[in-house]
Amino acid sequence: MKRIGFAVATVLLALFAIALYSLFEIQPMTRRLPPSRDARINEYLALDRWLQSSGLTVRTESSANLSMLLGAEERQIFIQASLFRWTDEAVEYLVRWIEEGGSLFLALDYSREHFTGHSQDWHNEGPMLLLGVFGIEAEPESSMSAYRHETDLWFTDFPNYDSRVSFIVINNVVNEQPLILNDSSGHTRLVQIKRGDGKLTVSGRPLFLLSSNLDRAPNARLAWALFATDSVPEATLNGEEAGWLFIRGLTRTQGLFGSLFRQGNLVALIVSLLVLLLTGFWAVIPAFGLLRGDDEKPLRPLRERFLTEGRFLKRYDALGFYRAVYIKEIKRRLGRKKSFNSDAELQRYFLELLGRPIDEQDFLKIIKDYKTILERI
Protein backbone atom coordinates (compact mmCIF):
# COMPACT_ATOMS: atom_id res chain seq x y z
CA MET A 1 0.00 0.00 0.00
CA LYS A 2 2.84 2.35 0.86
CA ARG A 3 4.54 1.62 -2.47
CA ILE A 4 1.36 2.44 -4.36
CA GLY A 5 1.01 5.76 -2.50
CA PHE A 6 4.64 6.62 -3.21
CA ALA A 7 4.21 5.84 -6.91
CA VAL A 8 1.07 7.98 -7.14
CA ALA A 9 2.82 10.90 -5.42
CA THR A 10 5.78 10.58 -7.80
CA VAL A 11 3.51 10.62 -10.84
CA LEU A 12 1.61 13.66 -9.59
CA LEU A 13 4.85 15.49 -8.88
CA ALA A 14 6.14 14.69 -12.37
CA LEU A 15 2.91 15.94 -13.96
CA PHE A 16 3.12 19.13 -11.90
CA ALA A 17 6.73 19.70 -13.02
CA ILE A 18 5.80 19.14 -16.69
CA ALA A 19 2.90 21.60 -16.38
CA LEU A 20 5.16 24.22 -14.84
CA TYR A 21 7.78 23.78 -17.56
CA SER A 22 5.25 23.96 -20.42
CA LEU A 23 2.88 26.65 -19.13
CA PHE A 24 5.27 29.04 -17.37
CA GLU A 25 8.43 30.80 -18.50
CA ILE A 26 11.26 32.10 -16.34
CA GLN A 27 12.42 35.52 -17.43
CA PRO A 28 15.21 37.56 -15.86
CA MET A 29 14.14 40.82 -14.26
CA THR A 30 16.25 43.94 -14.38
CA ARG A 31 16.13 45.97 -11.22
CA ARG A 32 17.31 49.54 -11.51
CA LEU A 33 19.37 50.66 -8.55
CA PRO A 34 19.66 54.39 -7.85
CA PRO A 35 23.17 55.87 -7.81
CA SER A 36 24.95 56.08 -4.49
CA ARG A 37 25.18 59.31 -2.52
CA ASP A 38 28.85 59.66 -3.51
CA ALA A 39 27.89 59.47 -7.17
CA ARG A 40 25.11 62.03 -6.74
CA ILE A 41 27.42 64.48 -4.98
CA ASN A 42 30.49 63.95 -7.18
CA GLU A 43 29.62 63.85 -10.87
CA TYR A 44 33.29 63.01 -11.63
CA LEU A 45 33.39 59.97 -9.33
CA ALA A 46 34.12 57.48 -12.14
CA LEU A 47 37.06 59.60 -13.34
CA ASP A 48 38.48 59.86 -9.81
CA ARG A 49 38.36 56.11 -9.25
CA TRP A 50 39.78 55.45 -12.70
CA LEU A 51 42.78 57.69 -12.08
CA GLN A 52 43.34 56.31 -8.58
CA SER A 53 43.31 52.74 -9.86
CA SER A 54 46.02 53.79 -12.34
CA GLY A 55 48.34 55.00 -9.58
CA LEU A 56 47.43 58.69 -9.69
CA THR A 57 46.44 60.61 -6.59
CA VAL A 58 43.34 62.80 -6.73
CA ARG A 59 42.82 65.78 -4.42
CA THR A 60 39.68 67.89 -4.68
CA GLU A 61 38.98 71.43 -3.47
CA SER A 62 35.62 73.21 -3.77
CA SER A 63 37.24 76.64 -4.30
CA ALA A 64 40.72 78.13 -4.57
CA ASN A 65 42.77 81.28 -4.86
CA LEU A 66 46.40 82.20 -5.48
CA SER A 67 47.55 81.32 -1.97
CA MET A 68 46.22 77.78 -2.34
CA LEU A 69 48.06 77.32 -5.63
CA LEU A 70 51.29 78.52 -4.02
CA GLY A 71 51.03 75.72 -1.45
CA ALA A 72 50.00 72.98 -3.90
CA GLU A 73 52.55 70.22 -4.55
CA GLU A 74 50.76 68.80 -7.59
CA ARG A 75 52.12 69.70 -11.02
CA GLN A 76 48.78 69.00 -12.71
CA ILE A 77 45.79 71.13 -11.85
CA PHE A 78 42.18 71.20 -13.04
CA ILE A 79 40.45 74.55 -12.46
CA GLN A 80 36.74 75.15 -12.81
CA ALA A 81 36.85 78.83 -13.75
CA SER A 82 33.83 79.95 -11.74
CA LEU A 83 35.30 78.51 -8.50
CA PHE A 84 38.68 80.28 -8.71
CA ARG A 85 39.34 83.79 -7.44
CA TRP A 86 40.96 85.44 -10.43
CA THR A 87 43.43 88.28 -9.97
CA ASP A 88 46.20 89.73 -12.12
CA GLU A 89 48.75 88.15 -9.79
CA ALA A 90 47.06 84.75 -10.17
CA VAL A 91 47.16 85.00 -13.98
CA GLU A 92 50.85 85.93 -13.93
CA TYR A 93 51.64 83.07 -11.56
CA LEU A 94 49.77 80.50 -13.68
CA VAL A 95 51.61 81.60 -16.84
CA ARG A 96 54.96 81.27 -15.09
CA TRP A 97 53.90 77.98 -13.45
CA ILE A 98 52.97 76.47 -16.84
CA GLU A 99 56.25 77.59 -18.41
CA GLU A 100 58.12 75.85 -15.59
CA GLY A 101 56.48 72.51 -16.30
CA GLY A 102 52.97 72.68 -14.91
CA SER A 103 49.94 71.22 -16.67
CA LEU A 104 46.70 73.22 -16.36
CA PHE A 105 43.24 72.17 -17.51
CA LEU A 106 40.94 75.22 -17.53
CA ALA A 107 37.18 74.54 -17.75
CA LEU A 108 35.05 77.55 -18.68
CA ASP A 109 31.85 76.50 -16.91
CA TYR A 110 29.99 79.79 -17.23
CA SER A 111 26.39 79.92 -18.44
CA ARG A 112 25.45 80.94 -21.98
CA GLU A 113 24.14 84.28 -20.66
CA HIS A 114 27.53 84.90 -19.14
CA PHE A 115 29.31 84.17 -22.40
CA THR A 116 27.02 86.40 -24.44
CA GLY A 117 27.80 89.32 -22.15
CA HIS A 118 24.35 89.74 -20.60
CA SER A 119 25.78 89.53 -17.08
CA GLN A 120 29.08 91.37 -17.39
CA ASP A 121 32.02 92.06 -19.73
CA TRP A 122 33.65 88.66 -19.51
CA HIS A 123 36.35 89.50 -22.07
CA ASN A 124 38.30 91.32 -19.33
CA GLU A 125 38.01 88.57 -16.75
CA GLY A 126 40.93 86.54 -15.43
CA PRO A 127 40.33 83.37 -17.49
CA MET A 128 40.14 85.37 -20.74
CA LEU A 129 43.33 87.26 -19.86
CA LEU A 130 45.08 83.95 -19.26
CA LEU A 131 43.85 82.58 -22.59
CA GLY A 132 44.96 85.77 -24.33
CA VAL A 133 48.54 85.19 -23.21
CA PHE A 134 48.44 81.80 -24.97
CA GLY A 135 46.77 83.20 -28.09
CA ILE A 136 43.30 81.76 -27.50
CA GLU A 137 39.98 83.54 -27.79
CA ALA A 138 36.66 82.19 -26.51
CA GLU A 139 33.47 82.92 -28.42
CA PRO A 140 29.87 82.09 -27.42
CA GLU A 141 27.73 79.83 -29.57
CA SER A 142 24.14 80.47 -30.54
CA SER A 143 21.52 78.36 -28.86
CA MET A 144 20.37 76.88 -32.20
CA SER A 145 23.89 75.73 -33.07
CA ALA A 146 24.25 74.18 -29.64
CA TYR A 147 20.94 72.36 -30.03
CA ARG A 148 21.97 70.84 -33.37
CA HIS A 149 25.22 69.65 -31.87
CA GLU A 150 23.57 68.05 -28.84
CA THR A 151 20.89 66.25 -30.84
CA ASP A 152 23.44 64.87 -33.34
CA LEU A 153 25.99 63.85 -30.69
CA TRP A 154 24.92 60.26 -30.05
CA PHE A 155 25.05 59.39 -33.75
CA THR A 156 28.72 60.39 -34.09
CA ASP A 157 32.06 59.30 -32.71
CA PHE A 158 32.81 62.70 -31.15
CA PRO A 159 33.19 63.22 -27.41
CA ASN A 160 30.67 65.17 -25.35
CA TYR A 161 31.76 68.80 -25.67
CA ASP A 162 30.23 71.92 -24.18
CA SER A 163 28.40 73.53 -27.10
CA ARG A 164 28.00 76.92 -25.43
CA VAL A 165 31.50 78.15 -26.26
CA SER A 166 34.02 77.68 -29.06
CA PHE A 167 37.65 78.77 -29.36
CA ILE A 168 39.85 80.56 -31.89
CA VAL A 169 43.62 80.14 -31.91
CA ILE A 170 45.70 83.15 -33.00
CA ASN A 171 48.59 81.68 -34.98
CA ASN A 172 50.93 84.67 -34.72
CA VAL A 173 50.97 84.30 -30.91
CA VAL A 174 51.33 80.52 -30.66
CA ASN A 175 54.90 79.27 -30.93
CA GLU A 176 54.22 75.53 -31.21
CA GLN A 177 51.56 73.67 -33.15
CA PRO A 178 48.56 73.40 -30.80
CA LEU A 179 46.21 70.45 -30.36
CA ILE A 180 42.81 71.54 -31.66
CA LEU A 181 39.73 69.30 -31.32
CA ASN A 182 36.53 70.09 -33.18
CA ASP A 183 33.02 68.73 -32.85
CA SER A 184 30.84 67.26 -35.59
CA SER A 185 29.94 70.75 -36.79
CA GLY A 186 33.55 71.85 -37.14
CA HIS A 187 33.57 74.17 -34.12
CA THR A 188 36.68 74.15 -31.93
CA ARG A 189 35.71 72.84 -28.52
CA LEU A 190 39.08 71.99 -26.93
CA VAL A 191 42.56 73.47 -27.35
CA GLN A 192 45.86 72.35 -25.87
CA ILE A 193 48.92 74.56 -26.22
CA LYS A 194 52.43 73.82 -24.98
CA ARG A 195 54.48 76.66 -23.58
CA GLY A 196 57.94 76.19 -22.11
CA ASP A 197 57.98 72.88 -20.26
CA GLY A 198 54.25 72.83 -19.52
CA LYS A 199 50.92 73.02 -21.30
CA LEU A 200 47.51 74.62 -21.07
CA THR A 201 44.30 72.81 -21.98
CA VAL A 202 41.04 74.74 -22.22
CA SER A 203 37.47 73.68 -22.93
CA GLY A 204 33.96 74.53 -21.88
CA ARG A 205 32.31 72.46 -19.18
CA PRO A 206 34.03 69.05 -19.56
CA LEU A 207 30.96 66.93 -20.20
CA PHE A 208 33.14 64.10 -21.49
CA LEU A 209 34.52 63.64 -17.95
CA LEU A 210 31.16 63.14 -16.22
CA SER A 211 30.41 59.70 -14.82
CA SER A 212 27.24 59.50 -16.90
CA ASN A 213 29.21 60.05 -20.13
CA LEU A 214 32.52 58.35 -19.43
CA ASP A 215 31.25 54.95 -20.59
CA ARG A 216 31.28 56.19 -24.22
CA ALA A 217 34.49 55.22 -25.99
CA PRO A 218 35.22 58.72 -27.44
CA ASN A 219 34.91 60.27 -24.00
CA ALA A 220 37.06 57.61 -22.33
CA ARG A 221 39.84 57.95 -24.95
CA LEU A 222 39.94 61.73 -24.62
CA ALA A 223 39.88 61.62 -20.81
CA TRP A 224 42.73 59.11 -20.71
CA ALA A 225 44.81 61.11 -23.18
CA LEU A 226 44.42 64.34 -21.21
CA PHE A 227 44.66 63.09 -17.64
CA ALA A 228 46.60 59.84 -17.55
CA THR A 229 48.79 59.29 -20.62
CA ASP A 230 51.62 61.65 -19.66
CA SER A 231 51.02 61.85 -15.91
CA VAL A 232 52.79 58.78 -14.55
CA PRO A 233 55.97 58.85 -16.69
CA GLU A 234 56.61 62.58 -16.21
CA ALA A 235 56.09 62.42 -12.45
CA THR A 236 58.30 59.35 -12.16
CA LEU A 237 61.17 60.94 -14.08
CA ASN A 238 61.00 64.15 -12.05
CA GLY A 239 60.76 62.31 -8.72
CA GLU A 240 57.37 63.88 -7.97
CA GLU A 241 54.11 62.39 -6.79
CA ALA A 242 51.84 61.58 -9.73
CA GLY A 243 48.48 63.17 -9.16
CA TRP A 244 45.91 65.83 -9.99
CA LEU A 245 44.50 68.70 -8.00
CA PHE A 246 40.88 69.26 -8.98
CA ILE A 247 39.25 72.60 -8.15
CA ARG A 248 35.63 71.85 -8.85
CA GLY A 249 32.25 71.99 -7.19
CA LEU A 250 30.05 69.32 -5.67
CA THR A 251 26.43 68.72 -6.52
CA ARG A 252 24.08 69.32 -3.58
CA THR A 253 21.72 66.42 -3.02
CA GLN A 254 18.10 67.15 -2.21
CA GLY A 255 16.88 65.64 1.05
CA LEU A 256 13.31 64.78 1.95
CA PHE A 257 12.31 68.27 3.06
CA GLY A 258 14.23 69.91 0.21
CA SER A 259 12.38 67.87 -2.41
CA LEU A 260 9.08 68.42 -0.60
CA PHE A 261 9.43 72.20 -0.50
CA ARG A 262 10.77 72.31 -4.05
CA GLN A 263 8.08 70.16 -5.69
CA GLY A 264 5.16 70.17 -3.22
CA ASN A 265 2.62 72.71 -2.05
CA LEU A 266 3.64 74.23 1.28
CA VAL A 267 0.11 75.52 2.08
CA ALA A 268 -1.43 72.08 1.57
CA LEU A 269 1.24 70.56 3.81
CA ILE A 270 0.53 72.98 6.67
CA VAL A 271 -3.25 72.54 6.40
CA SER A 272 -2.88 68.75 6.38
CA LEU A 273 -0.70 68.84 9.49
CA LEU A 274 -3.20 71.01 11.35
CA VAL A 275 -6.12 68.73 10.42
CA LEU A 276 -4.10 65.69 11.49
CA LEU A 277 -3.24 67.27 14.86
CA LEU A 278 -6.86 68.29 15.54
CA THR A 279 -8.11 64.82 14.63
CA GLY A 280 -5.52 63.20 16.89
CA PHE A 281 -6.39 65.40 19.87
CA TRP A 282 -10.10 64.83 19.28
CA ALA A 283 -9.54 61.08 19.34
CA VAL A 284 -7.42 60.87 22.50
CA ILE A 285 -9.00 63.57 24.72
CA PRO A 286 -12.15 62.22 26.49
CA ALA A 287 -15.42 64.13 26.68
CA PHE A 288 -16.08 66.45 29.62
CA GLY A 289 -17.75 65.03 32.69
CA LEU A 290 -17.46 61.81 34.65
CA LEU A 291 -16.23 58.71 32.90
CA ARG A 292 -18.83 56.02 32.53
CA GLY A 293 -18.06 52.67 33.99
CA ASP A 294 -18.57 50.36 36.95
CA ASP A 295 -18.26 51.97 40.37
CA GLU A 296 -15.27 50.66 42.28
CA LYS A 297 -15.88 49.35 45.76
CA PRO A 298 -14.20 51.46 48.44
CA LEU A 299 -11.30 49.89 50.27
CA ARG A 300 -11.71 48.70 53.83
CA PRO A 301 -10.59 51.17 56.53
CA LEU A 302 -7.01 50.89 57.74
CA ARG A 303 -8.11 50.14 61.30
CA GLU A 304 -10.28 47.25 60.17
CA ARG A 305 -7.50 45.80 58.04
CA PHE A 306 -5.05 46.16 60.94
CA LEU A 307 -7.40 44.35 63.32
CA THR A 308 -7.98 41.56 60.82
CA GLU A 309 -4.26 41.03 60.45
CA GLY A 310 -3.85 41.11 64.24
CA ARG A 311 -6.55 38.44 64.73
CA PHE A 312 -4.82 36.24 62.17
CA LEU A 313 -1.46 36.54 63.94
CA LYS A 314 -3.07 35.97 67.34
CA ARG A 315 -4.65 32.76 66.09
CA TYR A 316 -1.21 31.37 65.35
CA ASP A 317 0.52 32.92 68.40
CA ALA A 318 2.58 35.26 66.21
CA LEU A 319 1.76 38.62 67.77
CA GLY A 320 5.38 38.90 68.76
CA PHE A 321 6.01 39.92 65.13
CA TYR A 322 4.68 43.42 65.90
CA ARG A 323 6.74 43.64 69.08
CA ALA A 324 9.91 42.65 67.18
CA VAL A 325 9.27 45.35 64.58
CA TYR A 326 8.91 48.07 67.25
CA ILE A 327 12.02 46.89 69.15
CA LYS A 328 14.05 46.87 65.93
CA GLU A 329 13.00 50.44 65.11
CA ILE A 330 13.74 51.59 68.70
CA LYS A 331 17.21 50.04 68.57
CA ARG A 332 17.87 51.68 65.19
CA ARG A 333 17.01 55.13 66.53
CA LEU A 334 18.88 54.62 69.80
CA GLY A 335 21.91 53.33 67.88
CA ARG A 336 22.62 56.89 66.74
CA LYS A 337 22.85 58.11 70.35
CA LYS A 338 24.11 55.18 72.45
CA SER A 339 24.66 51.44 72.29
CA PHE A 340 23.38 48.69 74.67
CA ASN A 341 25.36 45.62 75.54
CA SER A 342 22.33 43.48 76.50
CA ASP A 343 18.55 43.37 76.41
CA ALA A 344 18.45 43.93 80.19
CA GLU A 345 20.22 47.24 79.76
CA LEU A 346 17.74 48.13 77.00
CA GLN A 347 14.80 47.28 79.28
CA ARG A 348 16.20 49.50 82.05
CA TYR A 349 16.38 52.36 79.55
CA PHE A 350 12.73 51.70 78.62
CA LEU A 351 11.79 52.03 82.30
CA GLU A 352 13.55 55.36 82.47
CA LEU A 353 11.61 56.65 79.46
CA LEU A 354 8.20 55.33 80.60
CA GLY A 355 8.63 55.82 84.35
CA ARG A 356 7.03 52.43 84.93
CA PRO A 357 7.57 48.80 83.83
CA ILE A 358 6.04 47.52 80.56
CA ASP A 359 3.01 45.27 80.99
CA GLU A 360 3.99 42.04 79.21
CA GLN A 361 0.50 40.49 79.53
CA ASP A 362 -1.73 42.85 77.54
CA PHE A 363 -0.64 43.02 73.87
CA LEU A 364 -2.36 46.35 73.18
CA LYS A 365 -0.68 47.97 76.17
CA ILE A 366 2.69 46.60 75.04
CA ILE A 367 2.31 48.20 71.62
CA LYS A 368 1.08 51.44 73.20
CA ASP A 369 4.15 51.55 75.48
CA TYR A 370 6.50 51.00 72.53
CA LYS A 371 4.77 53.82 70.62
CA THR A 372 5.29 56.07 73.63
CA ILE A 373 8.99 55.17 73.73
CA LEU A 374 9.35 55.97 70.02
CA GLU A 375 7.78 59.36 70.58
CA ARG A 376 10.14 60.16 73.47
CA ILE A 377 13.38 59.12 71.74
Give a description of the structure:
The chain folds into 2 domains: 37-247, Rossmann fold (3-Layer(aba) Sandwich), CATH 3.40.50; 304-376, no CATH class. Helices cover 47% and strands 13% of the residues. The protein has helices at 2-23, 37-41, 45-53, 66-71, 88-99, 112-115, 126-133, 143-152, 217-227, 231-238, 256-263, 266-284, 302-315, 320-334, 343-354, 363-376, and strands spanning 57-61, 76-80, 103-107, 136-140, 165-169, 179-182, 188-195, 198-203, 243-247. The strands form 2 sheets. Strands 1-9-2-3-8-7-6 form a 7-stranded mixed sheet. It has a two-stranded antiparallel sheet with strand order 4-5. Strand 2 (76-80), helix 5 and strand 3 (103-107) form a beta-alpha-beta unit. It is elongated, with a radius of gyration of 46 Å.
What's the helix and strand layout?
Elements: H1 2-23, H2 37-41, H3 45-53, E1 57-61, H4 66-71, E2 76-80, H5 88-99, E3 103-107, H6 112-115, H7 126-133, E4 136-140, H8 143-152, E5 165-169, E6 179-182, E7 188-195, E8 198-203, H9 217-227, H10 231-238, E9 243-247, H11 256-263, H12 266-284, H13 302-315, H14 320-334, H15 343-354, H16 363-376
Parallel strand pairs: 1-9, 2-3, 2-9, 3-8
Antiparallel strand pairs: 4-5, 6-7, 7-8
